[in-house]
Amino acid sequence: MDASTSNSGNPLRAGLATERTAPPCAVVIFGASGDLTKRKLLPALYNLAVSRLLAPGSAIVGFARRPKTDEQFREEQKANVAQFSRRKPIDEAVWSTFASGLHYVASSFEDSHGYVRLRDALERLDRERGTRHNRVYYLSVPPSEFGVILRHLREAGLVADPKHEDDGFTRVVIEKPFGTDLATGEALNQELLSVFDEKQVFRIDHYLGKETVQNLLVFRFANSIFEPIWSREHVDHVQITVAEDIGVEGRGRFYEEAGTTRDVVQNHLLQILSIAAMEAPVAFDANAVRDEKVKVVRALRPIRGLEDVARQTVRGQYVRGTTDGKPVPAYSEEEGVPQDSRTETYVAMKAYIDNWRWGGVPFYLRAGKRLQKRVTEIALHFKPVPHALFAASAGRVEPNVLSIRIQPDEGITLRFMSKVPGPETTLRPVTMDFKYGATFGGAGPEAYERLLLETMLGDATLFARSDEVRAAWSWITPMLEAWRELDPPEAYASGSWGPDAADALLRADGHAWRRP
Ligand SMILES: NC(=O)c1ccc[n+]([C@@H]2O[C@H](COP(=O)([O-])OP(=O)(O)OC[C@H]3O[C@@H](n4cnc5c(N)ncnc54)[C@H](OP(=O)(O)O)[C@@H]3O)[C@@H](O)[C@H]2O)c1
Question: Is the pTM of this model over 0.90?
Answer without folding.
Answer: yes
